[in-house]
Design a protein that fits this description.
With 440 residues, the protein is mostly beta strands. The chain is built from four helices and 31 strands. Helix 1 packs across helix 4.
């Protein structure tokens, strides 16, 4: 995983611990997004004008798509950033919707970009934060994501998800000549890089807990393999090979020491765990039905998966300590698939098909508080943001005219239910969200 090298060289204000104002609001709880004014970052010199504009755009977009903030309308801002920082007009600001004001400047010098940024509460006039950070000019987008994370942490009390990435399957070609390539991009859809050449079919890429590796399924010449790939070196290892059978849906354990995956042996598909050090394989399910799409809880104690053992495709949770399995999906006439634990362990995301409609939703690990977040012709493959506040997923949409289907990646926040699309260059499916990027 890339390391974002940021020099935090100026602490203008000593700030106490972040106030934990963030509360999950789905499932009947009350939660109000915080209105924030993101003033246009001032350009410190003539070479910084365009970067200041682009920097502002990224920060605004990040915070708008967080579910934690709403952007106060820029046409209502009574001051520019420079005027506000010189002498805040608190009377005028109290007439706006903004509860928080973010103001700062951007300076480009040679191959370096620097951003200074300040956070103020409007009602209390409190100067919450004042800092500066710099990065290489080539990493200016990363710097904007970093500042967005700082704002999120200081106002919401938890980290943002802006310094993260998404690995996915980039798709090209017609239905009979489909080319699928591994690809990776920033969480906002920019900086797309391809990790494979399309000579093999690749499916279900998933990040390791530290973000340095991915595991995925590869199909080539009838052979199905589970692959471990190191993102920095590009080195690959074959973890499992299935000839004449199938192995699929690999996913790392939360401690990174193993993977869970499905393996079809002797006509039966079950969930297995593999220790990555010893390569020892442990069978976790013993039913005569088909079990697949496993996901281990953050504490490592439970495994959620889908099974067709009763009432069609449903979600079950296995307690690895007691061996007890419990069905948690309960909707009548509905099928459930692709369960995924949230990083904070509070929710399980899923794909649901009911009365011919596809949906992405979440439920508590005991099956309660089911909430639908997105629907569509086909929506599938949910994946959690590293701070458990948003889901990315794949959506197929019918095209007008020729009736063809296009697949794109979308995201939705859990609180405002606001959706946004990620601007991939072509069709894209099967996303997996990374942990937050390391910052040195």
């Amino acid at each position: 995983m890339r390391t974002l090298v940021l020099a935090l060289f100026l602490a203008l204000v000593a700030v106490g611990s972040a106030q934990a104002q963030f509360r999950i609001g789905i499932g009947g709880g009350q939660r109000a997004a915080t209105p924030i004014a993101v003033l246009e970052f001032e350009a410190a010199n003539s070479t910084s004008v365009q970067h200041a504009r682009d920097f502002t755009k990224i920060v605004r977009q990040n915070l708008q798509n967080s579910g934690t903030f709403t952007l106060a309308s820029s046409k209502d801002y009574p001051q520019t950033a420079s005027a506000f920082l010189a002498d805040p007009d608190w009377r005028s600001w109290r007439q706006t919707d903004a509860k928080v004001v973010l103001a700062g400047s951007v300076s480009v010098s040679g191959s370096t970009i620097q951003a200074t940024y300040h956070l103020h509460y409007v009602r209390s006039r409190k100067h919450k934060l004042g800092e500066a950070a710099e990065a290489s000019l080539a990493q200016w987008r990363d710097l904007a994501h970093y500042v967005s994370d700082v704002v999120h942490l200081n106002i919401a009390g938890i980290d943002g998800h802006y310094t993260s990435q998404i690995v996915f399957i980039a798709e090209d070609g017609g239905a009979t000549s489909r080319v699928k390539r591994l690809a990776i991009m920033d969480q906002d859809g920019h900086n797309i890089r391809y990790l494979s050449d399309g000579s093999s079919i690749v499916l279900t890429p998933r990040f390791s807990p530290d973000g340095d590796e991915i595991t995925y399924t590869e199909i080539n010449s009838g052979r199905v393999r589970v692959i471990l790939r190191h993102l920095v070196t590009g080195q690959q290892e074959v973890l499992e090979t299935a000839e004449g059978t199938s192995t699929f849906s690999p996913r790392f354990s939360p401690d990174g020491r193993g993977i869970v995956y499905s393996l079809a042996l002797n006509g039966n598909t079950d969930i297995y765990y593999m220790d990555l050090q010893t390569r020892a394989r442990e069978r976790l399910t013993m039913e005569p039905s088909a079990e697949t799409s496993p996901s281990i809880s953050p504490d490592g104690r439970r495994v959620a998966y889908e099974s067709d053992r009763q009432s069609g495709q449903q979600i079950y949770v296995l307690d690895r300590t007691t061996g007890i399995t419990r069905r948690i999906s309960i909707q009548d006439r509905a099928r459930y698939a692709t369960p995924v634990w949230s990083p904070d362990g509070q929710w399980i995301a899923f794909t649901r098909i009911k009365d011919g409609e596809f949906a992405i939703g979440v439920m508590r690990p005991d099956g309660s508080t089911e909430q639908i977040l997105a629907t569509g012709y086909v929506v599938e493959s949910p994946t959690w943001s590293p701070n458990s506040t948003a889901l990315a997923f794949a959506r197929q949409e019918r095209q007008t005219g020729d009736g063809s289907v296009k697949t794109r990646i979308y995201a939705v926040d859990l609180f405002e239910r606001r959706e946004w699309s990620l601007p991939t260059t072509g069709e894209a499916s099967d996303p997996s969200w990374s942990p937050r990027m390391a910052q040195n």
